[in-house]
Amino acid sequence: MYGDGSFPQIADSFGWGTWVSWVMIVGALFANFGVYEVYLHTSSTALQSLAFSGDAPRILSLSLPRFNTPWVALLFFSITTIIWCLFDFYVVIEVETVLYCVHIIVMISTFFKLRWSYPEMVRPFKCPGPTWLLGIICLFPVTICSVNIFLTGYFELFLAIMIVICIV
């Protein structure tokens, strides 16, 4: 019954008038604005927390006194979002995919580093099983992530990130 189109076109096809299409457009604008505001707030608050703990530049911890709004972190994320809007959408998706794969590999590496370096450390939860079995289980996602990075053509970026992580 329906082909390619958009929600306003579908709303208009019901025959209730064009006002329904405008309601759909305004609703979509508010929904996207809300999602962006949540992203901006949570990311800037996380960045402010990293700055408080010393893992990010101290200037990112500055906040407005009245509502404790991390204005420098908000400005940072707003500027980076504007810069990412200048790129082609497929480039943004590929870079995000590579960074997510790097994130997964670093998390798994951290898991094994903590398990080997601090085996008796008190943790809120423990993964049962021998380390070699967990290594085999974690080999699958690391392989998928590595193949994904290699196929996207950002292998040099991946190597650079991994070298920086190993140095730090």
Could you characterize the architecture of this molecule?
This protein has 168 residues and is mainly α. The chain has six helices and no strands. The chain has helices at 7-13, 18-53, 71-85, 89-117, 131-152, 155-167. Helix 1 (7-13) runs antiparallel to helix 2. The longest helix is centred in the N-terminal third of the chain and has 36 residues, at 18-53. The mean pLDDT is 83.
The total of beta strands comes to 0
Mean pLDDT over the full residue set: 83
Strand content: under 5%
Which residues form runs of ≥5 with pLDDT under 50? none
Binned, the helix content reads over 70%
Instruction: Work out the radius of gyration.
Output: 22 Å
| Shape category | extended
Give helix and strand order, one letter per element, not per position: HHHHHH
Number of helices: 6
Structural class, from secondary structure content? mainly alpha
